[in-house]
Predict the structure.
Amino acid sequence: MGNNFENTTEQNENVNFESRLNLQPLQENVQKVKAEIGKVIVGQSKMIDQLLVAVLSNGHVLLEGVPGVAKTISAKLLAKTLSLDFSRIQFTPDLMPSDIIGTSIFDLSKSTFEFKKGPIFSNFVLIDEINRAPAKTQAALFEVMEERQITADGTTYILEKPFLVIATQNPIEQEGTYRLPEAQLDRFLFKITIDYPNLEEEIYIIQKENELQSRNKMDTIATIISQSNIIEFQELVKQILIEQNLIEYIAKIVLNTRENAFLYLGASPRASIAILNASKGFAALRGRDFVTPDDIKEAAIPVLQHRVLVTPEREMEGITSIEIIKQIVDSVEIPR
């Protein structure tokens, strides 16, 4: 009996509680990317985490903030740390769908039409001031953002993996802008709101700019993650475990947005799937191979804030979608 007890104790001491997924390479690469971006961007660690989660979850991002808070430079820095084909599109009121997707040009030598691909045929697309283009141009993004394919002249072109869109918009300026359709907003995994820096961060920004002098900010940034590794990490994130009670927790949060008296448009099942994918991304970022309620809470606001609409009465009172989502998340019982 004594020997059996000793053997059992020895076995228990040797139990290995390692993660079922090897997340170490992912974490190491993510830390290196954050260090590279941190060479230029001061503070904004939450925003950088959310951008990285979007990459890991294979989702698009809408960056919103007043001019000068580093929306475009953040996207460009992230793109430089990833070994991906990059293109930038400046949206303007006269931009046509063919300027984005591409157009068929008649080839005189072959007497046939040849499709010339537009800038959307890239792995990483930065769309600057997305709300400056009219509805017809916005609609050109619907298929490509959701299905990662483009149909032109009856031919369907599948985009190379990964395909990520980061779009920026200014919430203050109204002249020459168009409201994004709900159907398009729903295709963004996250809406990330960038605020002004605090005093200490502002001082540090000025100091860093003074030290740079004539050097280019982008020149110091190294490429960290290869295209094949990004695809590998995205597949790894999909395998992260989520328990049934946490799936029900997500469903209850989203259902509450549809039943909330302060909202006249709730979130769709696409939002539920987005929270699922994003919570797995946050878990991977923290080095865990399973989702916790905190991951879901962290995903809820950036996933839901652009997918719900506040009633006009509450909007006039100054209540925001973020405040309502926080109340909903706090009111839903956390699974034990």
User: Anything to note?
Assistant: The longest strand covers residues 102-107. The CA atoms of residues 26 and 113 lie 44 Å apart.
